[in-house]
Amino acid sequence: MRNRDVSFWLFLTPVILSLSLVVIIPFVYGFIFSFTNWNGLTASKFLGFSNYIKLFQDAEFVNAIWFTIQFSVVTVILLNILGLSLALIVTRKLKSSNFLRTIFFMPNLIGGLILGFIWQFIFISVFDDIGSALGIEALNGWLSTTTTGFWGLVILTTWQMAGYIMIIYIAYLQNIPNELIEAAEIDGANSFQRFRNVTFPLVAPAFTVSMFLTLSTSFKIYDQNLSLTNGGPHNSTQMVAMEIVKTAFSENQMAFAQAKAVIFFILVATIAIAQVYYNKKREVEM
């Protein structure tokens, strides 16, 4: 037992050290610097809560938070609906199931920046050509307004992550005992009733995991936002991560940006923990 304990800590120590150096220590230092006038090199003055008071008066930051929340709510709903739908399709006994799984998952392998530029070309060039050819004015000038920029980001993110969420649901769907499905069929339950009363309760843990992943990812998006809209027009599609980076590196207000990052961390952590707690509670009730 003692040798096992030694080997356990021997293997765990590099992970703990890496986590501390990359995550914990920088977070603590960043939290401390958020109370100063740190410019990236020196912090000569302690400002107290001045940066935190100032950020709530920053209209651009508040608008970015509101835009990010709206984007996250829509994206989380669409991703989980689409991911579960794709999982239900590929878990049926089809000859093309493995091929379809590969096709649906492939967009997740494309980098965010490249994906943004690809969809920028589609939304601007391809949509304009289709709109001009078919006389559909709604397709012209995509990404030039706040509304179309918002839905462009939603479409991009959903297309990229749906296959990844599909894999999570597949893992749980394949663990559902066939006896339960067969028993429901014998009792006369139709497809919808079998899904509602048998399948969905048993994949509830997958819903908890998927909700957490999609929620945290949606809030932290930066590269897709940068390459697709770059926050335009007039910073109206600027998400929180981009606004923080802009404050830090374009405006050179490192401490102010760090204060925004702390508030952003608290917001995301609170929502994620509340969501996990609520979904876990529902799992027990089911």
UniProtKB/TrEMBL annotation:
Keywords attached to this Swiss-Prot or TrEMBL record, sorted alphabetically, are:
Cell membrane, Membrane, Transmembrane, Transmembrane helix, Transport
Instruction: Report TM segments.
Output: 7-32, 64-91, 103-127, 150-172, 202-222, 255-278
Main localization of the protein described in the UniProt heading: membrane
Entry's localization field: Cell membrane
Residue ranges of domain ABC transmembrane type-1 in the record: 65-275
| Highest taxon, organism lineage | Bacteria
GO biological process annotation, one example: transmembrane transport
Family to which this protein belongs:
Belongs to the binding-protein-dependent transport system permease family.
Question: What is the protein name given in its UniProt record?
Answer: Raffinose/stachyose/melibiose transport system permease protein
Q: Show the taxonomic lineage.
A: Bacteria, Bacillati, Bacillota, Bacilli, Bacillales
